[in-house]
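Q: Can someone sanity-check these two? First one:
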Amino acid sequence: MADATHADPHVPPSAADLPKPFALGALGIILIGLVLLAFIAGLFFVGWLPQRAAQADLEQQAKNTANPTAHVRVAKPKPAPDTLTTSLPATLAPNQQTTIYARATGFVKAWHKDLGDHVQAGEVLAEIDAPDTDQDLAQGKAAVAQAQAAVAQANASVDQGTANQKLAQISLDRLKKVGAAIASQQDIDNAQATLDAATATVALDRANVTAAQANVAAATANVDRLATLVGYEKLTAPFAGIVTSRTVQVGSLVTNGTGTGNALFQISQNDPMLIFVNLPQPQTAGIAVGQKATIAIREFGDATFAGTVSNIAGLLDPNAHTMVIELQIPNPDGKLLPGMYATANIAVPSKRKLWVIPANALMMSGKGAQVAVVLPDSTIHIKPVTIDLDTGASLMISSGLDPADQVALDPGENVVEGAVAEIVPDTASATGAAPAGGAGASASSSAAAPPVELTSATAAVPGSATAPTR
């Protein structure tokens, strides 16, 4: 009966029939605690420790930025020598050069000198047949002869008038001498009138002589002009030189003038040769006529040519701040040719105190040219400087440096005002080991004084390779 009642699904089970609840023992509690501790430790290592390390790095970087350590090589300023060699680009130019034009109108009859021929002063280059000018000369000579004949005729008239004047004077004197007893007053008056007329005629004839002589002078001047034009029918060299251009051809029509079609020859005098260079303003105070220079030309290798300063412009270009000077180079063998590119090395005495430092010490900023110097307490101090000359490899400083300064070379980003400096010897970089905080230190030593030689970078020459004219 009891089993039937329990089996009835509509009757709820008693408490004795339910399963026992789960009970967590001491071991389970320990295991759960260990799992929780492991989870918390994992979160600690994954999250907080990296964040702490990053924070430490940021604090160290901030500390380094506030007090950076710069590893630098240094060099002391060297005094510039008393004489600076300035190397400037230039172009050779002839001592004299001229273009010969036709002054006579006519046809080219012959030419006697060709391109490259050497000529002497006065030597005939070409001949022009100018029949019109020849006819004008003949006509002018006839006009001179006609004027001279007019002078002779006027002189004859003067002689005849003078004779008539004398005769009239004699007649008047006779009548006055015999007096009124024989000669009437009318006769005396007539004789006086005759004398006055003869005197006037003589004066007129003499005026005619003067006019005729003036005509002779004018005709003679015209003949001289035409003779000069006829002389231009022979083109001659104005000076000794070499023919560098010939455009004349036999039978060509040329006219008197300087048009393009009338440029028949060009002659250059190449001994001595000239060089015009634009000297920078800092060297102008020491340049003088007579100073020597060395000229180098690529085509002649290591061979050099001696030059001498012959003329100084005495005026600076207001834009480039350079002054033109002229050098002369002897060229007796004609090896040097006009238009050759050359380099002029001029030793210019310096009258100012300059300090030379390597060019890789320069720091440019919005404040201008600066250099970093290492103070005795091993800190960096930034100094503004005035660059007097930039030779490319070296800088010549006129103000801002002291002889005892240790100038930092190849300054990097750590080279700032107040930074702690650690001087790295040149031998360290020479072995290939880069300084820890340096900015690409050079492998070559810069502590020695750089050579003081000014290059073309020193001067701003407009078209500097071109030769200015005198």
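And here is the second, same format, sequence then tokens:
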Amino acid sequence: MTLTMAQAYQILAIATEKAEELNVKISIVILDARGDLKAAVRLDGAPWRSTFFAQGKAFASAMNDMSSADLAERADWAITRALMLRERGNFLCVQGALPIRLNGEQLGAVGVSGAPSSQVDEDIAAAALAEFDPIVSAR
């Protein structure tokens, strides 16, 4: 099963709505399970670098099928440092990304960056995934 554009856009729309509710200026990136870009947005007023950070968080989450916060706890492990070096800065072990799963299968990851704290970034990603309805987005 692969992440469809409709599903990626649905997650992006929900995350955008949540960010607007919280009045935070963020970037949101959706990647498929391979780590390839499916959708992205930098909201008006979001820092230019937030898109890069959101994608790096999402890439790390997609490659490990786990939250980037959990990966942050492993940032000092030799294997994690090796991956970060190999990916030349595109693999960020910083809170703010979560894997996208459907029926136990990983479809990709959503990464968020730019909020005042990494916890808020992850809260936005979690809210988007909580409302994500793959049946609706497949129509």
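A (reply): Looked at the second one. The chain has a mean pLDDT of 87. The beta strands are 27-32, 37-42, 97-102, 105-113.
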